[in-house]
Amino acid sequence: MEKRKATCYVIRRSSKCLFDHLFHRTFDEPPLQWNSGSMRNFVGAFKQLSSQVEQASRNPFTSSYLSSNVADFNHASTTKCSQRSFSLWRRFYGSAATLIQKNLAFSDINSDDISYFKNILGDENVVHDADRLQVANTDWLHQYKGSSKLMLTPRSTEEVSQILKYCSTRCLAVVPQGGNTGLVGGSVPVFNEVIINMGLMNKIISFDQVSGVLVCEAGCILENLESFLDNEGFIMPLDLAAKGSCQIGGNISTNAGGVRLVCYGSLHGNVLGLEAVLANGTVLDMLGTLRKDNTGYDLKHLIIGSEGSLGIITKVSILTPPKLSAINLAFLACNDYLSCQKLLLEAKRKLGEVLSAFELLDSQSMDLVLNHLEGVRNPLPPSVHNFYVLIETTGSDESHDKEKLEAFLFCSMGSGLISDGVIAQDINQASSFWRIREGISEALMKAGVIYSYDLSLPVEKMYDLVEEMRMRLGHSAKVIGFGHMGDGNLHLVMSAPKYDDAILAQIEPFVYEWTSKHRGSISAEHGLGLMKANEIHYSKSPEVVQLMVSIKKLLDANGILNPYKVLPHSLLRLSG
Amino acid sequence: MMKIMVSVKRVVDYAVKIRVKPDKSGVETSNVKMSMNPFCEIALEEALRIKESGLASEVVAVSMGPAQCVDTLRTGLAMGADRAIHVESTANLYPLTVAKLLKAIVEVEKPGLLILGKQAIDDDCNQTGQMVAGLLNWPQGTFASKVVLDNEKLTATVDREVDGGIETLCLNLPAVITTDLRLNQPRYATLPNIMKAKSKVIKKFTPEDLKVEIKSDFDVVRVNEPPKRKAGVVLSSVDELIDKLRNEARVI
Questions:
Q1: What region holds the Electron transfer flavoprotein alpha/beta-subunit N-terminal domain (chain B) (predicted)?
Q2: CATH no. for residue A273?
């Protein structure tokens, strides 16, 4: 089938180089202003945009395509339904900046498709209910909203395989979805892709109490796995604030990090096997439970972290560490970032193998949490502290660990690294300390609009970026920095009362360029998703990205798995 | 100025999922996190606040039990208690025995106020405070949700949480007060205080020193887990609901 190739235009107010490449000139017009996410504003903006594009483009095809679409779109937007004529998508917040063109090779759902799915899955697992779709179409941050009309909830690997085989032949785009807690728009449709929700595949298949290997389906919620393992005397090797909703398949697809990574390592080390379904329905059974298996290329590592773009994970086999009984938690205050760094070094040296978490919060994050969350209080006596550090130790001997921790803390206090601190005396106190750190995302949602960035940076430089952003943004937005300092992972979040293009322009691409300059990663653990699909060049070289594109085309020839995400749109469209 | 004595108990941590021992003789307590009883924390916090307001000269924490009670006392000292007393015994100590031991210690220390938690979360007895008040012949204000001391008149005004609402009593000191949940929010143990606590004194007594005989007036016969809650069922229609209400739950 011939693909209608209209000139792809991705206009980024801020990404001049890509822009130049596509249009061979720079636009000097002022940025389009929008004040809210309403469709009506977009129409005005779109009209401006389309006139600019028409002026620039010499291609008669493009201009006619555009003008026909504008007319359609005007009509469509007033009737609040815009799939067919609306082949452009804009990010809910701020920007005129990102416009993605729908891949017209993808088909739309018709009633035959629906009956086919109902045949395989049963009526109740083929969802067109508007309320459920509304939830499934919107991401956790309420920043990305798709317009899918169909959600499927398979119950077995066989069903997933049949769905994907069919979608492949019909060229129907799909979005695999787990707990929908991702922070980069990777778990929701961009246009009307079919959502494949793995939530019903939530059985624990087996658990070996000697080796600690857990085999379960991809839709198991992380917290449920943790409770199950708790009974057996084990724990999951990862822990994140989203644990009540996120599913293990999604965690593995995004190579989730979390607070335990500093102790147990990443999922690449802990996942022993996977069962995944490729775009054409082929089931890849790599569900080994062996700790060591050097037979051939280890393909599961391609799937881990591929964010659903190479295959849908259906079963996982994961190595779980034994639950150690002695957990100690200290909440500390430091005067400056340099002390925090020295503290980290000392902690790694003095606490060694028992150190299981090292988290940083700045005073602005603490204020945010205290102001917006209920039932939370500052563990430290009222005083101005600039930085807070949460240190957790996990070991098998309570008194030994407690002594070790206390000795380390007294010594650090004596040398001035810590200005004050408390040690949790029971589990409730420990949970309340963790609530502060884990509640930051929740507090941010309540505080207003979020611009969230997740960066890996050299530890010495981590906080410099936060201070520079504060200078750049001044009073227009609150800048907070917090994160897994033990892994060199900073969560940089700007909070503003409402979406504003001007703020976004100050942030991007400065943040990415700064990170790239210091050889950091623009996405430490959250992944690229939709938000950073076109920014991969800040952290990976062109040859590497090209090979990724080749692999994507090999495993998913029609590009139906989670399209528009992870890899740059221009590279996926221009070649082949 | 008077001193305040606070009795604290080392119990299984409130947040731990407890399990019954296979022989049903009790709850599994080995390898399980133990901490200070939450109501005792509140009692200690109240004592510290009274001392900080200048109405008492020192706070003494008391605990009875095996050697590990010292950990709980160290927590108390880290919160701010000045001294601690540990009555060491490996026997099962039930409320009446504890009350007798407390009476003996009160006669040694002579505090103006004895504060305890209203009950322990492991046995939920809610008896020790009342019994010790009876043995000492002191007035008692139990389930306190507010305590106000008056040093000139030597009285304590206690708001008690009772079923019908709040009852306000005025007690002559010395008195026994047991604390309820809403009295205060206990403070955390800060590093400087933990450091200071290491040098504070914990005095040891045995029941023989206090001339109290430990005898049990009753035996625990059996401990059972409560019946497991059945999972809920999602119904698909009103007809099914009516059918279940009629035939399974038998309420219509």
A1: 24-214
A2: 3.30.465.10
